[in-house]
Amino acid sequence: MDESTLAAGASGTVGFLIALVAGAAEAPKAVPLVETWPVGVFVTLLGLCVGSFLNVVIHRLPAGKSIVWPPSHCPLCLALIAWYDNLPVISYFVLRGRCRRCGSRFSVGYMLVEAATGLAFLGYWLAYFRLGLRDGADHLAVYAVHMVLAAALVASGVIDYERKEIYTSVTNLALAVGLVGSFLWPDVQRVGAFDHRLPDWTGWARADAVLLALVGAAVGAGVIYVTRFLGSLAFRKEAMGMGDVYLMAAVGGCLGWEAAVLIFFMAPFLGLVYGLWHLVRKRDSEVPYGPFLGLAAGIVMLVQDPLIAYFRPGIQAIFFQ
Ligand SMILES: [Zn+2]
Question: Alpha carbon of 120 to those of 50, 153, 233, 257, 285: distances in Å?
Fold first, then answer.
């Protein structure tokens, strides 16, 4: 190899590197901050912490205890749990699910609630901001309202599963966030609305969004209430609790009436599998419905657009002639 080829190679390499740097400097188009991975990591950590708080709600609310005081402690020896032993998911594995002081076992449920909430926050961030599964859902307000609802559904689902009770203080909080969120950011309702358009009822988008949220809450509560009424007539016993009515009011208020209807029809299929298994194993036909309404809501939050597209001709024929 002589000097000229060496010089040519070197200049070629330098040229390539310059082009690379220049290209890199030009290449990144303005990616919205919310779509960047640090935000993805942040919402995952936020979800883990929210899950940790949901555990407090899940265990203290039915016991009639304050959810802010006292701080986390071992239910057996009452020792306060230090912050480094209270890290979501991680501490469960570090301590192998036991109290550091007395060694009593903590239920794996704590860790599962934290992990599920963290994964939900990450999953919907991916779906809304990175994959664009829902038209118009790449909006922080939409994501925030949906995650409040998701958190309420996790807490309600677990409490209903364990105690067959739903707390309206939890569901009504989510409904309130849906109504206030719709007023502040009408996009919250636009995402769930048919064709992603708000109706023009009052000429003021904020008022229209709140009215649409109320329609969603009424439809969500209404479908369960009517089913409950008919079920009571048919089986001479309570078919669904009033808690499910409130739960679906929150779902309809946050996600819109179309989502509420889709969830109403999807939940029985999810519940049926568990119900049959439960009937065979425990000889108990009473199945909590809240977890399946919540599960169906979680699925519809991801696939509402394709589902609506699929049912669109039928919906238009019925409602928009
Ligand atoms: Zn202990």
Answer: 11, 11, 38, 22, 30
| All residues at 6 or more sequence positions from 79 whose CB lies less than 8 Å from its CB, including other chains | 73, 99, 100, 101, 102
Exposure on the CB side of residue 213, measured as CA atoms within 13 A:
26
CA of 74 to the centre of ligand 1 (A): 5
Distance from Cα 106 to the centre of ligand 1, integer Å: 9
Compute the CA torsion angle 41, 135, 224, 317 (nearest 10 deg). Answer: -170
CA of 84 to the centre of ligand 1 (A): 15
* Ligand 1 centroid, distance to 118 Cα (angstroms): 26
**Identity of the residue numbered 267:** A
The pLDDT score that the predictor gives to residue 1 is 45
Task: Give CA torsion, residues 212, 217, 221, 223, to 10 deg.
Answer: 30
CB 224 within 8 A of CB 239: no
Complete DSSP assignment for 17-71? HHHHHHHHHH------GGGSHHHHHHHHHHHHHHHHHHHHHHHHTTTT--SSSSP
Mean local confidence (pLDDT), 256-270: 94
Distance 167 CA to ligand 1 centre (A): 29
The rounded Å distance from CA 76 to ligand 1 centre is 5
Is the pTM higher than 0.85? The answer reads yes
Which DSSP letter does residue 203 get? S
53-85 per-position pLDDT tens digit: 999 999 999 999 999 889 999 989 999 999 999
